[in-house]
Amino acid sequence: MHGIRMTPFRADLRPADALLIVDVQPDFCPSGALPIPRGDAVIPVINELIDAAVAAAIPIYASRDWHPAHHLSFRKHGGPWPPHCVQDTPGAAMHPLLRLPPSAFVITKGSRLDIDQYSAFDQTGAAKHMRDRGVTRVWVAGLALDVCVKATVLDARKEGFDVNVLAAGCRPVTPEGGEQAKADMVAAGAAWVE
Question: For residue 101, which of 25, 44, 107, 155 sits 20 to 30 Å off, Cα-Cα?
Fold first, then answer.
């Protein structure tokens, strides 16, 4: 089958699964405000995951950073990051090459003025929403592996979900951070899927 790349996990998707795509937004891709090295390389992989999830009729969730302009995570307000994913800017949108279906559930995080929210489960209602739909296992991919993906995976485990992290669908801020994130997630009981 020339030119077609099969997804090896396709047959393993089951009705109690969900796909969770973390922060695939222009600001985290090359030329964005806070670019992750080769961040856009996750998009073709995640689009395959989306196709597989649609074929398996499992729910798809996509989180987004959605910061107010004066967010406390920004350097000028004492935080560690340059301004990024500011509400209603092009950099905060879902990446235009990401083929999210209209049925996808969007999880908005990082919109509070008083705290940062790296995890898609941090005060977003996502865990209850998933449980209400019978989800017990979550497949996770997105950006950045060593920040928001890691926080999301660790919280998913705390919420009692089985978690598979799709390695090809993630990129870290730094290689060292990525290795530590992988170790932390596996130690918490997540499966690392090459």
Answer: 155
Q: Which residues contact 89 (CB under 8 A, 6 or more apart)?
A: none
Q: Please report the domains of the chain, with CATH numbers, ordered by start residue.
A: 10-193 (3.40.50.850)
Whether 23 is a known active-site residue: answer: yes
Establish whether 148 is a catalytic residue. yes
Q: Chain-centre distance of CA 33, in angstroms?
A: 18
Question: Are 28 and 143 contacting, i.e. CB atoms less than 8 angstroms apart?
Answer: yes
Tokens of 95: 């990446």
CB burial of residue 89 (10 Å; 0-12, 13-18, 19+): middle
Query: Which position among 109, 155, 170, 182 bears the catalytic label?
Result: 109
Q: What is the pLDDT of residues 86-143, one digit of tens each?
A: 999 999 999 999 999 999 999 999 999 888 999 999 999 999 999 999 999 999 999 9
140/192 Cα distance (integer angstroms): 10
Active-site pick, 23, 27, 116, 146: 23
Catalytic residue from among 148, 150, 170, 182: 148
- Assess whether the previous peptide bond of 144 is cis (omega < 30° from 0): yes
Closest CA to 172 of 35, 9, 10, 12: 35
Asked whether 175 and 169 are in contact (CB, 8 A), the reply is: no
